[in-house]
């Protein structure tokens, strides 16, 4: 699966990060807690170099709790704080702000020892499209100062946002890498909506998601859709869901697009339960 999706504004975002990084004290990288590997832009770390960083694991309430703890420990072992948040409800955001201040405490104390007035800590919020970055900024600010939407790549432009007297945020649009060559990464991004549904064949995305969920916990599929899986392959399971949900066209043919939309929508909304599609062990396997 080779996905070429690198609109001009995303190229400009990369340049924007490079140009303004020197003015930033710390970076907050927003990842999807269900897919921390796939929702990470692999070129970001090269851009940031040695800049202090905190990871915000957004949509943590949709992730498996045990797997979430494994990810927090994984980042801790790397010397990085990972804070679970929900950018829509605001859960975890106060803790995130506290962690920013904690990580920057040495720099703040240095200003005070020099008798200089400590300026506001400058943080850069980065993340791929549709990961919840703009919603996080809105919660931090307390009003809708950054344009948000439920479609990938909505936010535009450059913004410095003062959220407290001691904290400023530099906002950037979402940024994806030029080419996604890893099929698993591409599918994970498609499942969560980071890639527009129009770009990939929705029927195949839905079918692969069904297969993925079955490998994690088949009971999720059997109980939610009231079907038996037995020795059915992914297509047969998809057809069984379609018949159960009445996704039929003329001559009793399955409407695969409609089935895919149902499964994807219920996964994205958490109706299927708390599901993590990646664990730290996946990184070891890839290595």
Automatic annotation (TrEMBL):
Residue positions binding GTP: 58-61, 86-87, 130-135, 174
Pfam family, one: MMR_HSR1
Keyword Secreted: no
Domain CP-type G: 13-178
Biological role: Required for a late step of 50S ribosomal subunit assembly. Has GTPase activity.
Organism ancestry: Bacteria, Bacillati, Bacillota, Clostridia, Helicovermis
Family: Belongs to the TRAFAC class YlqF/YawG GTPase family. MTG1 subfamily.
Single GO cellular component term: cytoplasm
Keywords: Cytoplasm, GTP-binding, Hydrolase, Nucleotide-binding, RNA-binding
Name of the protein in question: Ribosome biogenesis GTPase A
Xref: InterPro entries: G_CP_dom, GTP-bd, GTP-bd_ortho_bundle_sf, GTP-bd_ribosome_bgen, GTPase_MTG1, P-loop_NTPase
GO molecular function: GTP binding; GTPase activity; RNA binding
Highest taxon of source: Bacteria
Biological process, per Gene Ontology: translation
PROSITE patterns xrefs: G_CP
């Amino acid at each position: 699966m080779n996905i070429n999706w690198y609109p001009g504004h995303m190229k400009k975002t990369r340049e924007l990060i490079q140009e303004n990084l020197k003015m930033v004290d710390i970076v907050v990288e927003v990842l999807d807690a269900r897919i921390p590997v796939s929702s990470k832009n692999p070129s970001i770390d090269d851009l940031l170099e040695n800049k202090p960083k905190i990871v915000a694991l957004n949509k943590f309430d949709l992730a498996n709790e045990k797997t979430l703890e494994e990810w927090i420990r994984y980042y801790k072992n790397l010397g990085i704080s990972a804070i679970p948040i929900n950018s829509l409800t605001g859960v975890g955001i106060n803790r995130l702000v506290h962690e920013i201040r904690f990580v920057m405490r040495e720099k703040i104390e240095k200003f005070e020892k020099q008798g200089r007035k400590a300026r506001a800590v400058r943080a850069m919020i980065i993340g791929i499209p549709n990961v919840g970055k703009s919603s996080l900024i809105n919660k931090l600010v307390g009003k809708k100062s950054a344009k948000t939407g439920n479609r990938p790549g909505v936010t535009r432009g450059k913004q410095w946002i003062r959220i407290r007297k001691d904290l400023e945020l530099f906002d950037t649009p979402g940024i994806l890498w030029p080419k996604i060559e890893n099929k698993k990464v591409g599918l994970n991004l498609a499942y969560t909506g980071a890639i527009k549904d129009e770009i990939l064949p929705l029927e195949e995305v839905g079918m692969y998601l069904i297969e993925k969920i079955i490998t994690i916990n088949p009971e999720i599929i059997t109980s939610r859709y009231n079907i038996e899986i037995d020795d059915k392959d992914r297509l047969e399971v998809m057809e069984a869901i379609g018949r159960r949900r009445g996704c039929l066209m003329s001559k009793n043919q399955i409407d695969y697009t409609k089935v895919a939309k149902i499964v994807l929508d219920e996964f994205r909304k958490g109706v299927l339960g708390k599901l993590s599609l990646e664990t730290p062990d996946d990184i070891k396997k890839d290595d």
